[in-house]
Amino acid sequence: MLRHIVTGVMMACTALAVHAQDTTPPQNVQQQHQEIAKGEPTRWSRPDTTRAAQERTLRKEIGAALAEARQACNKGPASERGACLKDAQATYQHDLANVPQLLAQSQQTQSQQSQ
Q1: 71, 23 contact by CB (below 8 A)
Q2: What is the mean pLDDT of each run of 10 residues along the chain (115 residues)?
Q3: What is the DSSP string of 48-81?
Q4: Quick one: pLDDT at residue 20?
Q5: What are the residue boundaries of the structural domains of the chain, listed by start?
Q6: Cα 23–Cα 29–Cα 37 angle in degrees, nearest 5
Q7: Rounded to the nearest 5°, which phi and psi values hold at 23?
Q8: With contact defined as beta carbons under 8 Å apart, do 23 and 75 qualify?
Q9: Which contacts (CB < 8 Å, 24+ apart) does range 20-25 have?
Q10: Which pLDDT score is estimated for 21?
């Protein structure tokens, strides 16, 4: 389930990035191209084995989504920027507050799938 949640968050971030044009900082573009050329890191296909690792990954993804949302807000019209940033921060706080529930749902789904 956590993999599905993370995938969903990543897809939402991708959609937001496409909608708001490219939000990747220029300094990261070259590094991303180099990493892509090397292929997918093994850590991407290896699931987190402990609850602490799952929580770290989820919090990292939530933080990355906030960073991308902020960049998208800063590229938008100045008149809408304040509301956009406020909404991005509210979403971030909501997601962080729900980390325990998201992890519990993920573990329930994994248990059901393994039966």
Answers
A1: yes
A2: 56 51 73 82 81 92 94 95 97 96 85 74
A3: P-SHHHHHHHHHHHHHHHHHHHHHHHHHS-HHHH
A4: 44
A5: 2-7+28-114
A6: 130
A7: -105, 5
A8: yes
A9: 20/71, 20/72, 20/75, 20/76, 21/75, 23/68, 23/71, 23/72, 23/75, 25/71
A10: 52
